[in-house]
Amino acid sequence: KYGIATCDMNMGIAYKNLDLPEKALEYLRDAERVYSEIQYEAGLAQIYGNIGSLLMNREDYQNALSYQQKCLETSKKLGMMKNVVLSLNDISECYSNLGQTQNAINYGYAALDSAQYYEFKKIIPEIYYTLHIAYKKMNNYKKALECFVLFKEKTDSIQLAGRKDNIDKLLTEFETKEKEKEITLLNKDKELKSKRIKHQQQLLFIILAALAVILILGLMLLRMFVFKKRANKILQTQNEEIQQQKEEIETQKNEIENQKKLVDRQHKNIKDSILYASNIQRAILPPVKFINHIL
Predict the structure, then answer these.
(1) For residue 130, which of 78, 174, 79, 94 has the smallest C-alpha distance?
(2) In angstroms, rounded to a whole number, what is the distance separating the alpha carbons of residues 261 and 164?
(3) Rounded to whole angstroms, what are the CA distances from 40 to 71, 141, 235?
(4) Distances (CA, A) of 277 to 263, 272, 289, 292
(5) Which pLDDT score, from 0 to 100, does residue 161 have?
(6) What's the pLDDT at 209?
(7) What letter does residue 98 receive in the DSSP assignment?
(8) pTM of the prediction?
């Protein structure tokens, strides 16, 4: 029920703002009935005030007065002080239109005192205008003029404060945008610096990598040079040993050839000696056949 009543109240207020009073009253009275059933006084206070305002717009001031008094009583009970001030001002207006100007002035000043106490500054000009109308109907033009002047002063003050608020808001927005631009520029600058640093780091990495490759290649070349030098030294030593061995072999070969020549010579000499001995023997001794014959 609470949800339905709240929806009805919101619909009523919407129709009121659309200047459709009949539809607004229909929904507001439905909400009033449900809120009364469930005894939801905060909702009733708002309903009473809105119905009273609609009836005032229809110039049904007597019924409007009844609803505004209900709103005042309920709002006081719940401590809804803004509703209290608005109800007091509306009651003042109702009395003024009903010809009860003194009551209008009494409620008007009560509304003014509460508005000033609770600092409802935007309501104060309305109250002064209500008092201006009440005094005007009493033919008290001096007080009516005073209230109208105060109405204009307070209205101008609120408008000036509103303009100042707007200017402050615009300045704040401008400063915010400028700060946002500054932050954006700082972020861009930071991003550029970050990219520059990253690029420098990459370049440094490439240089270091290139130096590392050069160093490794240098060490490899140095190692190869050392190995080559060592190998050349070993090869030179081996060549020297081979040359020495070759020389020794050549020497041995020469010695063998000399010994062979010596042996050949000795063999020839022996052979010649045997041949010579054989010739001598043949000369001295008779032939073998003759010896064999004798034997």
Answers:
(1) 94
(2) 139
(3) 13, 44, 115
(4) 20, 8, 19, 21
(5) 58
(6) 85
(7) T
(8) 0.56
In 82-128, DSSP assigns E strands to none
End-to-end CA distance of the chain: 178
Q: Show the tokens assigned to 42.
A: 């905060």
Q: Give the HSE-up count for residue 8: Cα atoms under 13 Å, Cβ half-sphere.
A: 20
Max Cα–Cα distance, the chain, nearest Å: 215
Provide the residue type at 148 as one letter. F
The mean per-residue pLDDT over the stretch 110-133 comes to 95
Residue 281 in this model has a pLDDT that exceeds 80 = no
Residue type for position 13: I
Percent of the chain with pLDDT over 70: 90
Cβ-count burial 200-221 (b if 16+ within 10 Å, e if not): eeeeeeeeeeeeeeeeeeeeee
Q: How many helices (H) and strands (E) does the chain have?
A: 9, 0
65, two tokens: 């007065």
Q: What is the DSSP letter of 120?
A: -
